[in-house]
Amino acid sequence: MKNTLIIDGENFKWKMKAVIAAHEKEILYHTYDFRGLFEKILQGINAQRKIFYFGRIKENPQTKEKSQKLIEEQRLLKTHLEKQGFEVILVGRVRGQFENGFLGKKILIFREKGVDVKIGVDMVSWACDKKVDEIILASSDSDLQPAIREVRERGVRCVYIGFESSQNKGLTYTTDRTILVRDSEILEHGHGEENRNENHPDCSEHSVKP
After folding, report:
1. What is the DSSP string of 100-161?
2. What are the pLDDT digits (tens) for 138-188?
3. pLDDT at 47
4. Structural domain boundaries of the chain?
5. Fold exhibited by the domain 3-195
6. pTM
7. Which of helix, strand or coil describes residue 41?
8. β-sheet with 87-100: strand ranges across
């Protein structure tokens, strides 16, 4: 069976961050053991391809300082993931914009565009070309449900990887199987917190909203 693991990078990181914060921990994504985590999650499922998708971050004159930090964090994470055996696809864009926060205070939010579209197109394209028998999708983005339905109509199984603390019921109903990640699994594969310093930026500090 030809299996492909698709990870919606920012969506997955956002869910991880919520788990870490709930347990009053910190995380350095570019030292995190993603390979160990997914080996534990998949429990023997052999994925021939393991792909992280991220929005491409570009420097913005209006948000220059923070966008530069995000670019550096993405570079460190991309290198780290590739060393752990993952492919990394940068697509679309990440743009910073000021939005109204608490009591009308302006806050800077970075949002990505185009990642879910690329994931959906790739899923359907691979199914049509018979390049996959099973897609394992690590994303809680409901926008991917139409692509999942198309893939399954073409005879390709689809597995949803979600989080026990924030399961997307729509994706559970749409896919063939659901695997839920436990909080303990997220926590046990984190490391590098003791090495945090000025030369290793905290990747949770300047996060991108999926």
Report:
1. E-GGG-EEEEEEEESHHHHHHHHHHHHHHTT--SEEEEE---GGGHHHHHHHHHTT-EEEEE
2. 999 999 999 999 999 999 999 999 999 889 999 999 999 999 999 999 999
3. 93
4. 3-195
5. Rossmann fold (3.40.50)
6. 0.84
7. helix
8. 106-113, 87-100, 49-57, 3-8, 134-138, 157-163, 177-181
